[in-house]
Amino acid sequence: MPELPEVEVVRRGLERHVVGRGVLDVEVLHPRPLRRDPLGPEGFAAAVTGRTPVAVRRRGKYFWLALDSGDAVLGHLGMSGQMLVQPPGTPDERHLRVRLRLAGDRELRFVDQRMFGGLAFSPEGASLPTEIAHIAMDPLDPAFDTADVAARIRRRPSAVKRQLLDQGLVSGIGNIYADEALWRARVHGERPGDRLTRGQALEVLGHAREVMESALAQGGTSFDALYVNVNGESGYFDRSLHAYGQEGRPCERCGTPIRRVAFMNRSSFFCPRCQPVPRARRVAR
Fold first, then answer.
1. 68, 54 contact by CB (below 8 A)
2. Active site residues
3. Going from the N-terminus, what domains does the chain have, and what CATH number goes with each?
């Protein structure tokens, strides 16, 4: 699934190629990507046609086109969503779902093979759509309060990796970058938050920010052709991963083979020497 750096790469591409181009018309080729829009496909098309994107914003893994009307087009890439900017006449992608024809001979295309992603019209959502107002800020947001989030992590007994994936606490960190941040901090993902020192909690969040900034500089992480930027190009941060997806390979610090374990219907990757499994809590008699 695209995570924060991948969505930020897409946001920047949309900002560069879409802002200021009026929407001439909207064609919905499949209704599923608009399943969360109360207006439905026809209402979405009518609401967006004639409007002009004036900014492209993001919170966590959500992005939105702020429109000149004060409304917004809210988007999420889901598992395989792509936002592509194409010249008119370019052959349709196999999984093209929604097409926005823009002024200046451009088309904005929402392509989604698995259709877990989607678009929606958000009334008065230009600054922050109400649909995602509950989503916490992410570590790349200038207003992100690292000290406050670290303190909240330390007040909770739940495992630190679960907390990093809690979008109500800190948004944008997914499975890949959580594993990488924990490896860098030498902290096991199952360590309870209330058993972290203040320094450890701050270090984990600091590494989460740093690893996502590094991924962003390299265009994100692409394991297959599903994640691409608006020009159809893949990122290459997967070449810089130390833990995620490295099962059986030697840890770059100590040489111990990286281990994989099941985690919430996914996988966690860690070094068993650098990131020792936490001891079980003692049960009070």
1. yes
2. 2-3, 61, 266
3. 4-132 (3.20.190.10), 146-270 (1.10.8.50)
